[in-house]
């Protein structure tokens, strides 16, 4: 499996952050671009693909199931797909590394093909719940042999033809929604997903872009019903992946908490189902401006300029959680340096991400001098009012890239260096992160 050797690193104040930054391609969109291209008939190209470990796990799995995927010297990826229904049985177990998105979406794909695949992953992924995906996929007729607690290693025995289902999501999860929809691609009839709380809609947008017959109906209460006509034929596309708003949140929070900073992050995806962090930071008083607003690959995109700001604590409405679900770790860093109290709730899902993010952020921030109360479903943080925190602690990143990066950013406004016990997980989503921080230091 893919557990690597721990690489500890200390982070300290880099000086004011200035200049232009580019963040890598969106992770969610990159996974989907590879999967859907691999299911189209013919040649697709992808530019701006995130070349992080998670996405490379998806590429390797799609290759193992028959797609031809190559990276050109110019950084453009070319995919020759096998067609919906054309996936081949992989010879060996699919190693998903740290990637929950790869695992859950691919479980959906395999489920409606007459093939069997075993999924394995690192220690973090092997603890994460997969029952939320195998439950609906069992209803289409697929079979699962999982480890105790419904975790990896897990074998999916797919079925063809599968039975179309109508599934109401019991948790707000784009991964579960996407797994059911991807299974629906090779299922005769109409697969329906009912989504009471909206989550990221990249699958819906991109499937339509590939020519699938997919509709979304929103009722008066905001409940979304997504219908996909199965036995779809996907047409190859040329996809441009926008920059990842989840990655952009790290330099943006760094600029907000570091005196004298002003940075512009170029080409940031601003799909409304993903941009909650920016709305909440603005509600706290963040000075953010958006320019060059446009559309890239069917997604809204802009350049974001962030300046050092006096932030004030807020209460984050629980319904905002899905639109910033991956950004809470770095949001908690911003809150710990704001004036007054920030209250978050409805965040039970954070306990089953790459790590228990509520516990690790509460422990790590407290160890570095912040005032944090951990509740079952959120954190209450009394901020420092802009003053530097003590810092000086070593935090456990627990194979979680976003925990590691959040504390590297917190160090911007700590008196003493903050040590992360292992920064290697950062490569799963933001391989250029350390280089970006070094460039800020060099520009001091
Ligand atoms: C993702 C969905 C979210 C998010 C993850 C990526 C996706 O997970 O946390 O990083 O690409 O669909 P959940 O669906 O579990 O909320």
Automatic annotation (TrEMBL):
Principal location listed in the UniProt entry: cytoplasm
Binding site for 3-phosphoshikimate: 27-28, 32, 173, 175, 326, 353
Keyword presence, Flavoprotein: no
Gene name of the encoded protein: aroA
Subunit structure, interactors included: Monomer.
Pathway connected to this protein: Metabolic intermediate biosynthesis; chorismate biosynthesis; chorismate from D-erythrose 4-phosphate and phosphoenolpyruvate: step 6/7
Biological role stated in the UniProt entry: Catalyzes the transfer of the enolpyruvyl moiety of phosphoenolpyruvate (PEP) to the 5-hydroxyl of shikimate-3-phosphate (S3P) to produce enolpyruvyl shikimate-3-phosphate and inorganic phosphate.
Protein name in UniProt: 3-phosphoshikimate 1-carboxyvinyltransferase
